[in-house]
């Protein structure tokens, strides 16, 4: 089992990250959909949708949304939000997507870079390209690898729901690795996250291989311009040619 298959399916993952700033995320989706000039009822795939909150918000904005996630536990949770224009399904982003053509695919909040090989990374771009309409958009919201290398914090701790999560980060073989250790109900747990520090140039190379052109690259959730030296994010807007 891959690390992300195990870790994302545990309740502890959601405890650790439950206080993510959803207001910031919703504001980001507001400005992003406005920047792309999406029409009402546009068809969207939220690829790696997690607990479905962003899919549900996009649906609230008036879009027809299909949320896809590898975690069966996440999808079982998400299905409580389903309606006529919001659906959820278990899916591995490396595999072809069974759907009618859509207007845009979102891959948000660092949901890329989990895979070991370039072939697996390329397969994501292939599956997205195959499901998009001509002139459809692909938004890949990723970390800025150059910025991460400069600001990595080797150790940190946080307490959530009376559980102290001790975390260590280091860079190894082109991946940023976060070790997560904690104890709950007398039992010790160890998990890790491993994200490939894929450069902006490599992401663009993958995109161009599968028929995309770069329309815009932003450096944060307020859609300021990307600056490799200082931007925290690398938010890529691609159009299928």
Task: Write a brief structural summary.
The chain is α/β, with parallel strands linked by helices and 241 residues long. The chain contains eight helices and eleven strands. The chain starts with a helix and ends with a strand.
List the helices and strands and how they pair.
Layout: H1 3-7, H2 11-16, H3 22-36, E1 43-47, H4 53-60, E2 64-69, H5 72-78, E3 86-90, E4 102-107, H6 118-131, E5 132-143, H7 145-151, E6 155-160, E7 163-172, E8 175-184, E9 187-196, H8 200-209, E10 212-218, E11 233-240
Parallel strand pairs: 1-2, 1-4, 2-3, 4-5
Antiparallel strand pairs: 5-11, 6-7, 7-8, 8-9, 10-11
Helix pairs in contact: 3-4
Q: What would you say this structure looks like, in words?
A:
This protein is an alpha/beta fold and 241 residues long. It has two domains: 3-143 and 199-240, 3-Layer(aba) Sandwich (Rossmann fold), CATH 3.40.50; 148-194. Helix content is 30%, strand content 35%. The protein contains eight helices and eleven strands. The strands form two sheets. Strands 3-2-1-4-5-11-10 form a seven-stranded mixed beta sheet, with helices on both faces. α3 packs across α4. The longest helix is centred in the first third of the chain and has 15 residues, at 22-36. The termini are far apart. The mean pLDDT is 95.
The chain-level structural class is alpha/beta
CATH class of the largest domain: Alpha Beta
Main sheet properties: 7 strands, mixed
CATH superfamily of the largest domain: Vaccinia Virus protein VP39
Order of helices and strands: HHHEHEHEEHEHEEEEHEE
Q: How many structural units, i.e. domains?
A: 2
End-to-end Cα distance: 36 Å
The order of strands across the largest sheet is 3-2-1-4-5-11-10
Tally of alpha and pi helices: 8
Question: How much helical structure, as a percent, in the residues?
Answer: 25-40%
Number of strands: 11
- Which regions contain 5 or more consecutive residues with pLDDT less than 50? none
Shape: globular
């Amino acid at each position: 089992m891959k690390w992300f298959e195990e870790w994302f399916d545990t309740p502890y993952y959601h405890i650790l990250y439950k206080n993510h700033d959803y207001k910031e995320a919703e504001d980001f989706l507001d400005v992003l959909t406005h920047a792309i000039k999406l029409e009402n009822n546009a068809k969207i795939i939220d690829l790696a949708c997690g607990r479905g909150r962003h899919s549900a918000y996009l649906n609230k904005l008036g879009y027809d949304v299909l949320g896809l996630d590898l975690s069966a536990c996440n999808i079982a949770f998400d299905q409580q939000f389903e309606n006529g224009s919001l659906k959820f399904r278990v899916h591995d982003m490396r595999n072809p997507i069974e759907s009618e053509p859509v207007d845009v695919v979102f891959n948000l909040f660092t949901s890329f870079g989990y895979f070991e090989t370039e072939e697996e990374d390329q397969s994501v771009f292939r599956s997205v390209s195959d499901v998009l309409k001509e002139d459809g958009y692909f938004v890949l919201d990723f970390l800025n690898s150059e910025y991460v290398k400069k600001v990595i914090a080797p150790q940190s701790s946080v307490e959530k729901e009376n559980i102290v999560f001790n975390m260590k980060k280091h860079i190894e073989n082109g991946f940023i690795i976060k070790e997560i250790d904690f104890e709950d109900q007398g039992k010790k747990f160890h998990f890790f996250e491993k994200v490939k520090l894929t450069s902006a140039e490599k992401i663009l190379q993958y995109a161009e291989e599968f028929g995309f052109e770069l329309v815009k690259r932003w450096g944060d959730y307020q859609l300021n311009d990307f600056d490799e030296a200082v931007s925290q994010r690398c938010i890529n807007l691609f159009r299928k040619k």
